[in-house]
Design a protein that fits this description.
four-stranded antiparallel β-sheet; nine-stranded mixed β-sheet; alpha/beta; single chain; 341 residues; 13 strands; binds iron/sulfur cluster
């Protein structure tokens, strides 16, 4: 199976300080990701602030070059693309950012963000064809063109502005949309609607979706498979039902146990063992990054970084609690998930 978008053992390090006191902080370490060509898939990437989510998005968009590893689109290294290949990439890989307001120019009507890609990519032969294209895109995501077009950004709600961004991304009929915290600045009541719009678009136009979020609830709602990031490393990856209903890595258990549940009889995790939370240690350790927060820590956890252990057909966990399971290479599990039907 060929990959549409793939990260192979990607590491990104940021430096700070002067020439002689330079400190290097890894934002991402050895992260792999595999989005197949078809059929479409929806992958959630979950992690708290500082987990490396934003760096991952910027690497996948080619805004940053990895220090190690490579990011490939249709088998071509993003950093070595020709001008034409890059143009194709820019059209086929669209992004929706967290704060739609930043994308709008307050002096232009919202029409501007929709007409710009139509003009830039020559999507219509006439003004009326462009108008029809834009109206169709708005209607697909449940916005009425007559109530949306002709208005300024401040005249629309945050939810409407973000849905226009979804419509804008869909205009180009991309192969994949990277949605970076698309609902985190939207009222809770509208989150489900926007996510449903994204899911519908994904199915209607056969587009894959990479949904990046700190919110496990919405990731569960929309994703087929999930990647859990902690301090720049993938700690658990697998089928979303397996990971959320029976989380295995102590950090994933902590995330799942933290989800507010309205129905006291309903539980997200079968095993929601509370995990003691201490402040993240600033000490560098050679072993597991979660060791200072983990109530199950063993001596080996401080000595060597845990590899991935494959605990189910479609799940791997970076934790010595599962050392009886087979060790699996990071990219192998990603590929297995990518090939899952
Ligand atoms: Fe905890 Fe050790 Fe597993 Fe890390 S490897 S999560 S410290 S048990």
């Amino acid at each position: 199976m060929t990959a549409l978008l793939e990260a192979r053992n990607v590491t990104k390090v940021f430096g700070s300080g002067g020439l002689f006191k330079r400190q290097e902080t890894p934002a991402l370490e050895n992260v792999s990701l595999f989005i197949r060509e078809s059929p479409l898939s929806i992958t959630g990437v979950v992690g708290e602030s500082g987990s490396g989510k934003t760096t991952l998005v910027r690497l996948l968009l080619g805004f940053l070059a990895p220090a190690e590893g490579e990011v490939l689109y249709k088998g071509r290294d993003l950093q070595k693309m020709s001008r034409d290949e890059r143009l194709e990439f820019r059209r086929e890989v669209q992004v929706i950012f967290q704060d739609p307001f930043e994308v709008y120019n307050p002096f232009y009507k919202v029409d501007h963000v929709l007409t710009t890609p139509v003009t830039k990519f020559h999507l219509a032969r006439s003004k009326s064809e462009a108008r029809k294209l834009i109206e169709d895109a708005l209607e697909v995501i449940g916005l009425r063109p007559e109530e949306t077009l002709g208005r300024y950004p401040h005249q629309l709600s945050g939810g409407q502005r973000q849905r226009i961004m979804v419509a804008r991304a869909s205009l180009l009929r991309p192969r994949i949309i990277l949605a970076d915290e698309p609902v985190s600045m939207v009222d809770a009541s509208l989150r489900a609607t926007i996510l449903e719009s994204l899911r519908k678009l994904s199915q209607k136009f056969d587009m894959s979706l990479l949904y990046i979020t700190h919110d496990l609830t919405t990731a569960y709602q929309i994703s087929d498979s999930i990647i859990v990031l902690y301090q720049g490393s993938v700690v658990e990856v697998g089928d979303v039902e397996l990971v959320i209903k029976n989380p295995q890595h102590p950090y994933t258990r902590l995330l799942v146990a933290s989800i507010p549940v309205s129905d006291p009889d309903r539980s997200w995790g079968q095993d929601s063992t509370p995990v003691l939370v201490s402040k993240t240690s600033t000490k560098l350790n050679r072993g597991c990054k979660f060791v200072d927060r983990c109530p199950f820590a063993m001596s080996i956890c401080r000595e060597n970084p845990p590899p991935f252990f494959q605990t189910d057909g479609y799940r791997a966990v970076r934790c010595y609690l599962y050392k009886e399971a087979s060790v699996i290479a990071d990219e192998t599990m990603e590929k297995a998930l990518g090939q899952k039907g």
